[in-house]
Amino acid sequence: MTPVLVSGLSMGLRTRTKVILILVLALVPLLYILSSSDSSTGVPPLSSPPTRHVPDEPVSNPIIHENTERIPKVNIDAEKKAKAEMDKLEAKVVADVKAGSVSAKSSKLVPDDDVDAARPFISFLGGRLPKGITGRALDRVYEWANKAELADAAAREAYAAAIDAKAMLFISAATDLDDLIDRYWQTHMLHYNASVQSAAAERIREFLLDPTFAIAPSDISLLEPKKTPLCLIAAYEGQRDDFPEYATVLADSVAKNQPFADLHLFVHNVTKQSFPLNLQRPNVKVIDIAHVDPSYAYRGFAGFATDRLCKLFGRGTPVDPAMGWDETDEDCALLELRLAQFEGRGGRALDQLRGVWGRLFQDWVSSDRCESWGWIDVGTAVGDLSRWMNNTAIMDADLVTAHEGDEWRLYLRSSFAVHSYRRAATLVTDLWKRCSNLATLPALISTFENPGDWLSLTEGCYSHGALTAPGIRAVLAPWQLPSWTDTRLLILHDGRANYCVGENNVEVCRGWVRTFMQEQKKKEAKQIAEAVLYSKHTSSSYRTARQIFSSAPRMTRPGVISSGRKCADWIPSEYNLCLDDDKESSKRGDRAYIQTLQTNAETNVTSAAMVEYDVPSDGVGIEGITGRGVGETMIVRFLDWATKESKGKGKILPKVEKTWFYSLEKGSIQITAGKIMLHTVNGWW
Question: Are residues 483 and 637 in contact, defined by beta-carbon separation less than 8 angstroms?
């Protein structure tokens, strides 16, 4: 029995001990809280922030005396001066707030109101004051918290103003105000953001009363945007299929030409999931024409072209674009039907209308935005356009086209042609009226009457009319890689287009091109350095294409235009414009050349000339290699040879492969027959 009694006693003692311990632990936090509110500690309560007064002498404080080793020495004079400056700054900010130039979301902050001054501090620190901060340090914290609140309010105000100005940009695009910010919505695709337009709807009235306030304050003048030297247009008509991946080549090659050139690629009838949003570049825009007008989603390029052509011919616009021209104009309805039914022999209907593209796409390539505009094929790549074209010989011309060395054929190539606004914008824009097939609405309707007809309006009727127009100066340059050569490799790297011909082994070709590009750059760097070093003593032998083609030519030889010769079988005889020169006459290894065409306004006689220059040191302007070797070109129609090994199988498009982690900034493009490979430089270079 005894062990049981002892055990019970022990259990009772343990229980009482536990109760006592619990009471002690509960009293400890209470004692701590009560002690922390003691004013002798120097830590102020939340309801009573310390005074801001800075005494002439240091104030005795228990905390400071006990922890002097932790407090740095204070320069009282410097403190006074700094505080005075901050008080002046704070007074100015508060005055601005009261005047309404800056709005604060909190209550008005008065420098001498300690309670209000504590509010931003408390809110910035989540409602809790840090411990251990006293005296002047705590005063300084209050003051900077006050300024932080004001700065935060000002920043929010500025951000709201920026959002509002951006919303006004959307509205201005939607309200179709002429030439206000249409450049911006085309660049950033803002026009179609319905949610932003709805959010800013209450500001439409103010905007329409004064549209400039959304762009800049009244004391800032709006600057005229800088024009793009060359605006290119390409179009792709799908068959309810995927967008072609090979268009990456065109987009990336033009992207390297910023700011000299930009590209607008218009597409229709491609599957939504394949739409290449990733191809958008600062100077490359892919535009589904359904975004221009919803009705074009089913009316297609035929509806797009008809609406603009009929407007040019004074027929106005359809009453309801969704219904087309059926209820508005019979002639325009018939034109749209025939354009839609055209089968595309010799090029689809829109391709046949390239000469009118300057008018059809005027919203994107007008003379107030571009110094020149040009058409280009989707299956085309360009090199460094500025190195080849930014010279007097090219920039002073009204029309420029690149050919493949067949200089005896005088016509504008459908792969690439440029129309310059620099000399006579109106004349160049309306050259299409010189083509009888395009000049009137009845002529257009008649031209596309038979869907199966072979047409070559761009290189035939339009080209002939444009090149023979009085007052027009045209330049034809052999700067396109010949499609009939045995091209095995094209490499687009660092903005340049280099190729290899006549070698079956692709790896050997790639080695040739790599060596050629590296040696060319070393040569250029060395010659430039020598030119700078010896420029004071001797004339430099290094001359770029810009210098060569901007100076007097080496020789100019008149060309004889044949009146009855047919040199282009696919073009109607009446539109053939040919030279009598032998085909081999232009093979000159020691010089570069271009051709010029000009029609005398008085005699209406078109004259041609072969203008020869010294070979540029930078390798630009040289005719393409047709035998075996490597070279550089300005433009290449790569689909002409990239599909040649599969043409017997129905022209299978080249397969696009992305290797490593391709990026536009560091990437290079390698094209071989049947394959396009996108690389980073480190991936193969």
Answer: yes
